[in-house]
Amino acid sequence: MNPEIAPISRDDLAQHLDGKGTQRRLTGMHDAPGSESALGAPTATPEAADPADVAFAAELAHGAGELLLKLRDELGFEDPKALKAAGDRQADDYLLGRVAAERPGDAVLSEEGKGESGRIGTARLDASRVWIIDPLDGTREYSEAGRDDWAVHVALWQRGLGLTASAVALPAQSVTLRTDETYAVPEALPATPRIAVSRTRPPAEAEAVAAALGAELVPMGSAGAKVMAVVAGTVEAYVHAGGQFEWDSAAPVAVALASGWHATRIDGSPLRYNNADPYLPDLLVCRPDLAASALKAIGAAH
Q1: Less Cβ around it within 10 Å: N or C end of the chain?
Q2: Does the residue 82 lie in any domain?
Q3: CATH code of residue 264
Q4: Alpha-carbon distance 76 to 241, whole Å?
């Protein structure tokens, strides 16, 4: 497990589940779910998702996670490079195979995809439905014994709607978070807020936010694990400015926005997906009541 923070449990999530099961829109936030802007579709419209697509996304993420856990047990940790490569390849084959068989008309953008299913693909730019997939987010953590901060991301982007049906599996933590379950923002803000950051390269922007909020930095593995830690209430924010691609944040951002958390770029502009260039270098996910202060601190640091 991540020694810096306890793993997410179903009990943690149950404390934040909205018992009414309703999708709550952000208010006064950047690019709220369902909003339109001059740039086109909103970041996410989870309430527009087909329930069958949400179930499919969750099934895919969970299934790939189970495959990865089994592979980890079979190969062990003596050769981390081989374990990483096998995990990426087998999870990607599983996910792309399922999408091709069960959603044959949909396009795919996958971190490990080749040709049309990868970053150089162009068919997705004209498609009405695109699955944005990270088959193994946090390969370093996956290859380290005892680490549980790695994830599987499955997100559906739909033209005119942005991200809709999405799920993030944390296989080693035995949880899968999805856009048809809402995880309410806790009412109480801790005296010392916690900010999830990269284990290897915490950005200066995160340091600036920590100073402004009197917060502590919590090193953590994959982007999905960090965003889900925010959604589960085990940290209050995640600040990233070290470079990412769409597959790193699509599913986590959709899950966060579905429950009313703030998710934008670090300049406050909306996150956009299914672009010709999938590079999407920065991200702020946090409690809505911390967003203005965090963005102000980041702006002052630039």
Answers
A1: C
A2: yes
A3: 3.40.190.80
A4: 33
Q: How does DSSP classify residue 168?
A: E
Going from the C-alpha of 192 to that of each of 88, 206, 213, the distances in angstroms are 37, 15, 8
- List, as one string, the DSSP characters of 253-300: HHHHHHTT-EEE-TTSPPP--S-SS-B---EEEE-HHHHHHHHHHHHH
**SS3 at position 216:** strand
Q: What does the pLDDT read at residue 34? A: 35
pLDDT at residue 120 in the model: 83
User: In this structure, are strands 194-198 and 216-220 parallel, antiparallel, or unpaired?
Assistant: parallel
For position 15, what pLDDT does the model report?
54
Inter-axis angle of helices 246-258 and 223-231, to 10 degrees?
A: 10
What is the pLDDT at residue 165?
A: 98
What are the E-state strand segments in 146-193?
151-158, 162-170, 175-178
Structural Rg of the chain based on CA atoms: 18
Phi, psi (5° rounding) for residue 194? -115, 135
Position 200, amino acid:
T
The answer to the question of residue 78 being in a domain is yes
Domain boundary among 145, 178, 211: 178
Residue 292 backbone dihedrals phi, psi, to 5 degrees? -60, -45
Q: Which residues pair with 194 in a beta bridge?
A: 216
Spans in the chain with pLDDT lower than 70: 1-41
Query: What is the rounded distance in angstroms from the CA atom of residue 152 to the CA atom of residue 177?
Result: 11
C-alpha closest to that of 210 among 244, 235, 183, 242: 235
Please give the backbone phi and psi of residue 206, each rounded to the nearest 5 degrees, phi first: -70, -40
Q: Please state, in angstroms and rounded to a whole number, the distance separating the CA atoms of residues 302 and 267.
A: 10
